[in-house]
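CO-FOLDING WORKSHEET

Operator: S.A.
Ligand of interest: zinc ion
Run index: 207
Mode: holo prediction, single chain
Checklist:
[x] sequence pasted
[x] SMILES validated
[ ] output reviewed
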Amino acid sequence: MASLPREPFSLQGGCLCRSVRYQITFPKFDERQILNPNHPPDQPDIRAPLVCFDHCNDCRKASGTPVQTWIICPQEYIRFTLLRRSAGAESPTVDMSGNQLVHPNSASEETYLTHYSSSKSVWRTFCCRCGTNISFVAYEEAGSETLMDLLLGTLDRESLELVGMPEHHIWWDLGIGWVKKLTAEGDGSASGNALPRHPKGDIYQLA
Ligand SMILES: [Zn+2]
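OUTPUT RECEIVED:
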């Protein structure tokens, strides 16, 4: 992620059928939100975005990939443009910010973006037209309630190449053996520059 601009920039993404589109807009580096302001005092601030592998069982299933990857951003940085289901409306799309889409609302009925609660206080969204998973929010988890995790693979190619490789492995302890081997071999382990591995979801706790 060292390649991310320090000046303001934006990323674009969406689902396969383009019914769900989003843009993430970042201010300059010094103004980007610190992801967990309550982190241990001896640990450095980590500013948005956080780009990580997620080896947990639920996210593996929800994504349909052997390892999930996220770009984690403040909800207020994200703007969605959602295609309406019915033609003839005054505008073919609905614009909403990330924090307006944490919980199901009228957009869930008027557009193809659909919410699914996979566990307590968690909303995931997906496009019900093409099936692409879009986001995850743990809305009661301290430090996470203002964030939204977007599936890294939903970024448009140019944005994905700009963001670069994930910088953390979270839920390392739940990973599939061959997936951990595959990701670890490519992450610099051989040269002693491996990505930090976190046994669960706390990026300040090391394996
Ligand atoms: Zn779609």
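REVIEW:
Helices lie at 57-63, 106-110, 157-163, 177-185.
The chain has one domain: 9-186.
[x] output reviewed
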